[in-house]
Amino acid sequence: MSQKAQSAKMRVEFTIPTKMCGEVVEAFETMNQEAMIYESKTCGCKKQKYTIDIHRGTGTMDLNDSDRRTIVSIVDSDLAEGLVNLVRTVVGRDGSAVVLSEVHNLVHL
Fold first, then answer.
1. Which domain of life does this protein belong to (predicted)?
2. Which residues are 50's β-sheet partners?
3. CATH for 72
């Protein structure tokens, strides 16, 4: 791949609520883009209480749980702004983080 073609790529990363993940993936599909989805890790500020039912009894347990997912994609730089706007219309403006960064080297394995 030429240097010009490699510098024309951007990494786009969205941190979105888990419940919106399906809709965002559909938005990516409308633009014919592939994406990777990761579970976002929290820093322990939010705890949710779960009730665990085992054969010997019932108990509760506090777990740090993330209700967010991170979606990452590599797109052409001219499509990045359109993708951000499309995801913004799906998710809304709830303070979701968007990270845009240039891709200098892209190696296919």
1. Archaea
2. 61
3. 3.30.70.120
Q: Among 11, 18, 16, 66, which residue's Cα sits nearest to residue 35?
A: 11
Answer yes or no: is 8 within a domain.
no
Say which DSSP state 40 is in: P
Range of the domain at 30: 14-103
Task: For residue 9, tell me if it sits in a domain.
Answer: no
Domain membership flag for residue 99: yes
pTM for the structure as a whole: 0.67
pLDDT in the model for residue 6: 47
Helix axes 77-91, 21-30, angle to 10 degrees: 140
Any idea which of 4-13, 20-29, 43-52 has the lowest mean pLDDT? 43-52
